[in-house]
Amino acid sequence: MMKPRQMKAGRRNKEGRWAWRLTGFVTLCVYVFMFAPIMATVILSFNASMFGGFPITGFSLQWYGKLMANEAVLAAFRTSLWIALVTAIAATAIGVVTAFAIVRFEFPGKQTLSTLVILPALVPETILGVGLLVLIKAVDQPRTLLLLVLGHILLAVPYVVLIAQARMVGIRRVYEEAALSLGASRFSSFREITLPLLVPAVVAGAMLAFTISFDNTSASLFWRPAGVETMPTQILSMLKISISPEINALGTVMILVTVGIPLLGGLIMQSLTKLSRRGETREEVQ
Amino acid sequence: MTPGPSSGTGFQKVLDNMTAPKLPGQQSGALFSSAGSSAVLEKSSPAVEFRNIEIAYGKFVAVRDFSLSIQKGSFVTLLGPSGCGKTTILRSIAGLVDISGGQIMIDGRRVDDVPIYKRNIGLVFQSYALFPHKSVFDNVAFGLKYHNVPKSDIERKVGKALEMVRLPGSEKKLPSQLSGGQQQRIALARAIVFEPQVLLLDEPLSALDANMREEMRVEIKKIQKETGITAIFVTHDQEEALSMSDRIVVMNAGAMEQIGAPEEVYEMPATAFVADFLGKANMLAGTVSKSDGPTATVTLAAGQTVKVVSPKPLSPGAPVTVVVRPEKLSLESGAMANRLTGRVASTSYLGGSATYEIDIGGKRTVRVNTQINGRVVREGGAINIGFDPAGCVLLDEKGIRIS
Lengths: 286, 403
Hints:
The structure holds two protein chains of two kinds.
Chain A: H1 2-44, H2 62-69, H3 71-104, H4 110-122, H5 125-138, H6 145-170, H7 173-181, H8 186-215, H9 218-223, H10 231-241, H11 245-285
Helix pairs in contact in A: 1-11, 2-11, 3-6, 3-8, 3-10, 4-6, 6-8, 7-8, 8-11, 10-11
Chain B: H1 11-19, H2 37-41, E1 48-57, E2 60-70, E3 75-79, H3 86-94, E4 101-106, E5 109-110, E6 121-124, H4 136-146, H5 151-164, H6 180-192, E7 198-202, H7 210-227, E8 230-235, H8 238-244, E9 247-252, E10 255-260, H9 262-267, H10 272-277, E11 282-292, E12 295-300, E13 305-309, E14 319-324, E15 340-349, E16 353-359, E17 365-371, E18 382-385, E19 393-395
Parallel strand pairs in B: 3-8, 3-9, 6-7, 7-8
Antiparallel strand pairs in B: 1-2, 1-4, 4-5, 9-10, 11-12, 11-14, 12-13, 14-19, 15-16, 15-18, 16-17
Helix pairs in contact in B: 4-5, 4-6, 5-6
């Protein structure tokens, strides 16, 4: 009586095991596909070989050394870094305020505005790049660093707005109403209640804006003034000559910055909230 | 300048205030004194006064021609079904809703165009609205901070307020660590700690479970009496309104139906709406068949005749509605002047009492709520019910009480 059922259960178990193996295999493939290029770049950056590829002939830090001595690369890195910082700050400020306006207030043209604001994220970057360039030419203005920064802000604002908006909708209006009824002005209630509750979105938005600016290639190619290189455009121009192992080292630095900064930011945020909470309790004890 | 409470009014200051002459314009500092001595001290102008206010959203008029004067230290409830405008009126006092006509006065001062943060009102929300990122202490201290109370006083006042809502020592907790009932107590403490001129409560109990609701009802009432603060309470729950209020304002479709003490509103409903909304009274339609001074005989639509006492002589043939509360009807109708026979359509056994739906013919059912002595009558049983001719209210054909 029991036998057929046991057999059935056994078969199902076997099927289950195979399904799991298949899932594991596919997952592994996906991870390899995703991370192999990154790993290759990182590993090859330490390769002693003259050519930027396998096989590995020995461990060496010489490419990093060369990078440090390469004035053009260092200049590009500095340029990218401060453009990304300015973009992150400006785009976050504009984006958060815009999201607040769109979610909390009723005004004519609100729908149009909320669509217009996210439009730069929908339009292909190349077209946006050409468009801004054509506009600049039309009004007979030179390509300046300011234009490049403004362009990056334009590209980053939609993402900050979308992130802040999503969070803002989740913050119930009664919190602000309660703060107002307790005597806090509109500005105070924004600063003390809305903004702290919005912090995760503010931080996420700033990180994303930073990364968008730091990584941007195609639009930067159109907008940069003559003689100015950002990291991505510098890599592109280096690639035109040869695939030097230096590029692998540069790529590794780029990965470190774009992955490391959000990670670092997250860690700082965590310890900050912990600290402030501890500070508050200490204040109470006094 | 915010006409906030004078700084430094704590317990000690309260004692000073009682002996020292009051300065003009100084708010009564007797929040934490026992018994509403502040209400005795100042009775001149009403705490809140509405003068023909109207609130409209585009073409939709939420509140029309609403006038009301609220005594200092009293507990007034706005009662009505959802969408009747009660919450809108409450929010208009707070300044969260703009009125489109009329005037609102708080302590004799016109506040229509005073922004919310300068109105000096305490607000308790249905959803508590405690700041989730601030500790209990910071939540309660928030209002004090913005009313320029010195730091040394803030701590003491927060402590007293938490004691008042029976949650002392909870300063360091976050709102998420508290139960719903505790959160609402903290919200109450936060709203009263800075001694506002009016306390507004917007359905503060409806998010709580039944047991907690009853407990909080008593608690809120007690705290209101202790502090002597003027409270305006919004609810759709008639039991809350009847048990807590000094005065009840029954609202319907943006207008006031009746205002009065709980007993008054319950016993003498001014309109058919009030009679039905408060306590689900039996409304028996009929015509006057005989009038004899204060008493009249009414033939009901179902065919029976009943005797009623009318405050004024009725003319025979006039249509009237006889309003009888379920608990004014009794099953032992032997000694009663009025007797209706019917059949029990449904029985709800409630422990000490029972509610019956009784079919009296003509597609009319009558609701009877009675103490159980003896046995509970089950569905289908024939039954006699009766009521005292003086125990009913008469409405004319427009649904207005005959008086």
